Amino acid sequence: MTRIPLPLLKFPSLLLTASLFVLPFFVNSQISDDRSILLELKKQWDNPPDIDNWNDTSSPCDWPEINCTGKAVTVLLLSNKNIVNPIPSILCNLKNLTHIDLSYNYIPNTFPTVLYNCTSLQYLDLSQNYFVGEIPGDIDRLSTHLKFLNLGANNFSGDVPAAIGRMPELQTLQLYQNEFNGTFSENIANLSNLEVLTLAYNELFVPSPIPEKFGNLRNLKYLWMTSANLIGGIPESFANLENLEHLDLAMNFLTGSIPDSIFQFKNLEFLYLFHNNFSGGIPRLVNSTNLVEIDLAMNNLTGPIPEGFGNLLNLTFLSLFSNQLTGEIPVKIGQIPSLKYFKIWKNQLNGTLPPELGHNSPLLAFEASDNAFTGQLPQNLCSKGALLGVVVFNNFLSGEIPKSLGNCSSLTTVQLHNNSFSGAVPEGLWTATNLTSLLLSGNSFSGELPSRLAWNLTRLQIDGNKFLGEIPTGVSTWSNLIVFQASNNQFSGRIPEELTSLSQINSILLDGNQLSGEIPGNIIEWNFLNTLNLSRNRISGKIPASLGNLPSLNYLDLSQNHFLGQIPAQLGHLRLNALNLSSNQLSGKIPNEFDNLAYEYSFLNNSDLCADTLILDLPSCSRITSGNSEKLSTINLAAIIAAVAIFLVAILLAFLLVRDYRKKKLTRDLSAWKLTSFYKLDFTEESILSSLVDTNLIGSGGSGKVYRVPINHMGSAVAVKRIWNSKNLDQKLEKEFLAEVEILGTIRHANIVKLLCCISSENSKLLVYEYMENQSLDKWLHRRKTKEAGNNEYAYTTKANEMIDVYSFGVVLLELVTGQEPNCGGNDKSLAEWAWKHYADGNMIEDALDEEIKEPSNMEVMTRVFKLGLICTGTLPSTRPTMKEVVQVLRQYSPSQSNGESRKGNEKVAAPLLGILNHKRSRRVSSEDEESFGCGV
Ligand SMILES: *[C@@H]1O[C@H](CO)[C@@H](O)[C@H](O)[C@H]1NC(C)=O
Ligand SMILES: *[C@@H]1O[C@H](CO)[C@@H](O)[C@H](O)[C@H]1NC(C)=O
Ligand SMILES: *[C@@H]1O[C@H](CO)[C@@H](O)[C@H](O)[C@H]1NC(C)=O
Ligand SMILES: *[C@@H]1O[C@H](CO)[C@@H](O)[C@H](O)[C@H]1NC(C)=O
Ligand SMILES: *[C@@H]1O[C@H](CO)[C@@H](O)[C@H](O)[C@H]1NC(C)=O
Ligand SMILES: *[C@@H]1O[C@H](CO)[C@@H](O)[C@H](O)[C@H]1NC(C)=O
User: Fold this and answer.
1) Which end of the chain is more exposed for a tag (fewer CB within 10 A), N or C?
2) What's the rounded Cα separation, in Å, for the pair 328 and 224?
């Protein structure tokens, strides 16, 4: 291009004009060289569409991806350009290159040692790519001027080599989120200019202590080592790191006490030490007055909350939950002008709550449940109008709900259960616009129910109070309610038909009130009703046949009322786990479906019921009807009573004997039981086995019984499902059991009940689940909106586990649609690997689907579920969606969502996720991105 055409040499005069003409090219020779290098680079990358504006008629210095210094290309900005090929060696022919950003691409292969030839390089960002293999042991052959190196969010494995400590100019070293399965070199400590060091989310590291030598990094401002398999204590030498602004050692296995020195760092703004095993007290002297966020949750810290925290005038986030802190909350914490999140639940704190809390700062979340607080709720929690949640259950708080909470439209959850509150609920609280859950159980609240409720309210739990009056007919406007739990109050009057119009309702518990009248015969919209408990009232009349048509009902308790007449045959169509119609005045033949042992306690104390068989201890219908008239003769009656009495005594004796024998047998045969546990257990199999007694029974159904078994004196319990005890478990049940164990045993997710262990013997199987009585605050509060200041506080506490859960869930999805078992992908590949390979090789997804259930009508859904399974099982945890996103996609296919507006809404949310495979990986790096709030119920 700059060569002068030969003929011109022959004509000096022409040469002169020619050189005038070509002069610009001479002057710009470097730039045109650089341009041809860049165009060659583009070519070797297969012309990524995102840089198709690079051409040979414009100057590279005018391309948006390039910066020049003087006339040389110095800066290459190629983040997120869909580059899928390796880095060509020609890149370093750009001799003046100082800055390369290739982050967020799909660049494969091992570490690009071709970059060793870029001798002027100061800045290199290769984060968020597909690099694999080890970081080379000679990585220090990179430019000696290198100040910035980011290799985060790749798939590098092995060790972080010692050579990394031989790049003396480095100020930033980012190695977060890789697959390192060796150790990190303590030579990192030789990087005396280092200001930023990130090693977070490398949970495959061999467990290692933090090197004492790290105390040499005196310029360090930002240290991020979340989830890096750290053990041991924080080294003494950390006292030297007095320039730290951000210290994050969360989610490791660190022990010992928190060094006093940390709270002396003048510039420290963010301190995250949560989810470790730190013990001892929190340092008393707090001089780091710039602290903005402190998270010491989930450790074993003891002693009081330092008074000095009250002097931290920039503090927005203080989280100390799940420790063993004692004493009172320093009053001055209520005066901090910036405090937004205050989380101290699950400690042993006592005394009164700081009265000024919320008065001086835009408080968003106040969570103090499971302590021993007394006195009243602070009066002005919502005075800045920002409050999302008040969670103070399981304390000894008293007095009325502050009137001000009635004017707090930001509230989404109020959890005051199990305290000693009294008085009426402020009118405005029932209707607070954004409120989704109002939990007031176990207090002494009084007053009547409002006719209107917050439109968003899904959960209303007010059982065990002194509420009275009728259930208002306005109940029909409670249209989003899912749980209505109002047992053990003083409600009276009839059940209005309007209650049956709640189309979302799942549970209605109104037992232990004074309701009377009949159940409305016409049921408008109880399509999702699963649990209906009206026992211990004064309800009369017939049981409406329409109850038998409810598609979701599986728990029905109408015991201890005044129901009359026959049990409608339609009830037999329900698939019930528990049925209790005892202690009424029912008569006639029970529906055939109930004529089996699973219902042996369902019909007690109803004088005129009968059955075809004698299994249930009910009189035989044939005998009653053969007695010509309705009334039996007195003699016959006496004889029958005597016979029944003798029979009952005999049964009782037999029962006692058998029970005693069984109990003994259980314990004697302990060795015959095999325990498989999925979690660390704090109970023994013996304690479970000996507690499978009727007083602990909470439900029974076709395939077994469910018991609630207390496991300690603190009131913790587990739920034990006993799969029906027959001589030999039949094949189908055995299969069901194994499936449940397999799936629940591997899934770890907050919204899926935890299977703790299973205990099995030759002819009986027990599944032991977590029993959840009180919802922790996290379920309700921590899961929406708060992407404040680039930091979602909840996300980082659950993130790592969630990504593993999502993986497991993805495997389940793949199993469902392919019909294959998790480890049967052939050639000892896992199902997930097999599915990925199938997809990557360009095979039709349809070919991978289960032949047995594959039909043209559901092909599209199956294909999408297959893709969803793929996304969930991506090798890089960072590419996996959140459980919430997964649920959103799945909900789109559930029958209840298949019509109406909601579907449109959901498609919008779901589409980008399903598009990931075609377009862009979903990416998450730090705690910023995850949204996990908003689980409805
Ligand atoms: C070359 O790129 C520039 C902008 O980068 C554009 O204005 C010009 O039209 C392009 N030339 C050709 C031949 O594509
Ligand atoms: C590249 O140039 C743009 C525009 O002048 C500038 O904003 C940016 O900071 C430069 N980037 C680097 C890394 O020099
Ligand atoms: C580019 O680097 C070379 C040395 O590699 C140097 O001679 C030249 O001046 C630099 N060009 C610019 C424009 O800085
Ligand atoms: C670096 O450049 C030299 C010549 O300048 C070349 O011989 C060598 O192969 C290059 N190395 C790499 C790794 O590309
Ligand atoms: C580390 O991971 C790599 C890549 O997955 C593997 O090849 C290697 O065997 C692993 N090394 C150890 C010690 O586990
Ligand atoms: C640290 O704070 C305490 C009060 O909390 C004060 O007495 C002490 O002088 C402070 N020390 C330094 C070094 O500022």
Assistant:
1) N
2) 32
Atom 8 (ligand 2) nearest CA? 67
The residues, ordered by sequence, that sit 6+ positions from 677 with a Cβ below 8 Å of its Cβ are 756, 757
Q: Tell me, yes or no, whether 820 and 912 share the same domain.
A: yes
CB of 113 sitting under 6 A from ligand 4 = yes
DSSP state of 767: E
What residue ranges of the chain have pLDDT lower than 50? 1-27, 626-641, 643-644, 646, 649, 653-669, 726-728, 748-752, 774-801, 824-827, 895-937
Identify the domain containing residue 807 by its residue range: 799-918
706 inside domain: yes
Give the per-residue pLDDT at 372.
97
* Sheet strands (E) in 219-276: 222-224, 230-232, 246-248, 253-254, 270-272
Say how far apart CA 237 and CA 671 lie, in whole Å.
Answer: 53
- The response to whether residue 99 sits with its C-beta less than 6 Å from ligand 2 reads yes
Residue 698 lies in a domain: yes
The pLDDT value given to residue 766: 80
d(CA 784, CA 795): 10
User: Considering every ligand atom, which ligand is closest to the CA of 33?
Assistant: 3
Pick the residue whose CA is nearest to atom 13 on ligand 4: 114
Q: Is the CB of 181 under 6 A from ligand 5?
A: yes
- Which pLDDT score, from 0 to 100, does residue 9 have? 34
Closest-lying ligand 2 atom to the alpha carbon of residue 123? 13
Cα 21 off chain centre by: 69
**The predicted structure's pLDDT at residue 845:** 84
737 alpha carbon – ligand 2 mean position (Å): 62
pLDDT at 426: 95
**What total of structural domains would you count in the chain?**
2
Q: How far is the CA of 117 from the centre of ligand 4 (A)?
A: 6
Domain match, 684 and 749 both:
yes
Q: Is the CB of 70 under 6 A from ligand 3?
A: yes
* pTM of the complete model: 0.68
Neighbouring C-beta atoms of residue 734, cutoff 10 Å: 14
Ligand 6 center to 287 CA (angstroms): 6
- Ligand 2 in reach of 708 Cβ (< 6 A): no
Q: Same domain, yes or no, for 840 and 746?
A: no
Q: Residue 333: its pLDDT value, please?
A: 96
- The answer to the question of whether 854 is labelled as a binding residue is no
**CB 157 less than 6 A from any atom of ligand 5:** yes
Identity of the residue numbered 498: E
Ligand 2 pocket test, pick from 63, 67, 124 with the greatest ligand atom count within 8 Å of Cβ, gives 67
- d(CA 281, CA 839) in angstroms, rounded, equals 54
Contact 103/148 with Cβ under 8 angstroms? no
Alpha helices in 255-317 (DSSP H): none
Q: Whose CA is nearest to atom 8 of ligand 3?
A: 96
807: domain CATH number?
1.10.510.10
